């Protein structure tokens, strides 16, 4: 049986910390599906289609990584994909408290799902999408925190 893990998130933007979790997840699973969730109650900073394209380019040499977008409960999406694992990264205890509750609900909705937590690599722990958005919003350089360049992202935005 193929071990498929869904790595869900808004990825607004997708960071080097997220990339690290995916690459480490590939050592544990046959396939990692990066699922960009569409939350109708949140306004995205970077367009969904652009982020999907940037993530696909980041993993273009990794055939066992797929990128999807979804507009459903994560547990339902995992079941549709045949994923028996959810992959999540933890930077600190605050992340654990938040993710623990979500994992319990996902398990309630999809009994066969297991959430696997990977501790963020120490050098990447301070990185968060919200910090990167704030830095970018106020004109600060963010390329050091992203696995793609901001110029690539802007070029992709112009094409949508």
Automatic annotation (TrEMBL):
Protein's UniProt keywords contain Signal: no
Record domain Cytidyltransferase-like: where: 6-134
KW Transferase (keyword) present: yes
Pathway participation: Cofactor biosynthesis; coenzyme A biosynthesis; CoA from (R)-pantothenate: step 4/5
Keywords noted in UniProt: ATP-binding, Coenzyme A biosynthesis, Cytoplasm, Magnesium, Nucleotide-binding, Nucleotidyltransferase, Transferase
Cofactor: Mg(2+)
Localization: Cytoplasm
InterPro entries, per the entry: Cyt_trans-like, PPAT, Rossmann-like_a/b/a_fold
Enzyme class: transferase
Gene Ontology MF terms in the entry: pantetheine-phosphate adenylyltransferase activity
Similarity-based family: Belongs to the bacterial CoaD family.
Protein name, entry field: Phosphopantetheine adenylyltransferase
Source species: Dyadobacter fermentans
Gene name tied to this protein: coaD
